[in-house]
Design brief:
270 residues; alpha/beta; 45% helix; Rossmann fold
Amino acid sequence: MDLGIAGKTALVAASTGGLGLAIAKALAAEGVRVAIIGRRRDRAKEIVAELHGVHGHSAYASTGFDAVAIEADLTTPEGIVSAIEQSVADLGPIDILVLNGPGPKPGAAATLSSEDMAAAFDLLVKPHHALISHVLPGMRERRWGRILAVGSSGVAAPLPNLALSNTGRAALAGYLKTLAAEVALDAVTVNMLLPGRIATDRVAELDQAAAKRRGTTLEEIQLESRKTIPARRYGEPEEFGAAAAFLCSAPASYITGVALRCDGGLIRSL
């Protein structure tokens, strides 16, 4: 299938690793100009070099994509403005905005303070709202845009001991759902993609921490986790990236305001 996005420009937040990087690679494979953004300048440059095949063959060269490395802290207003300005200057107006970033600390709902709640909103809602506010006017004017947020399965079914993440991401989902209806006539789609257990370095770290906390092995933790997933395996980052690329595509123009799960059936509700 031709996704019809070759030559488009994408800003992918937190794309120097994990799910953000998987999405950036999937978009590059479709010929999208991609801004690789993160706090690690050297890592961002390494990724761009790899994509361009500076040190060998590039699997993306035939797509006609381009990529730039941008160091920015997207949790700050200054970082957001800097990232957008550099992306536009190097690649052109932003057609695809992928919202992604770190999550708040774990904790039970009954133990949270008002400061904790405010911090979760500051981390999970305000930066994404700011990014959208900067790029949405241009999308509406050009009558084409894709906004995709990387969420969490906690949006569909709140996860134990992740009260701040559950609350903040649900607030973001409410905002995005409302926005989707407001901009649909301008041919701008707004969606969320909810990962389950995807085999990233971050998930491996969490599994290792669980093994240490429970006094067992990493293999035992992973086995227990796989048993909760109907597909009986962790997802691959490339699978998540492919789902994201489709939601950002031209053929997906009639899909908006949805939270799609990419979780191997982990969440049992429809």
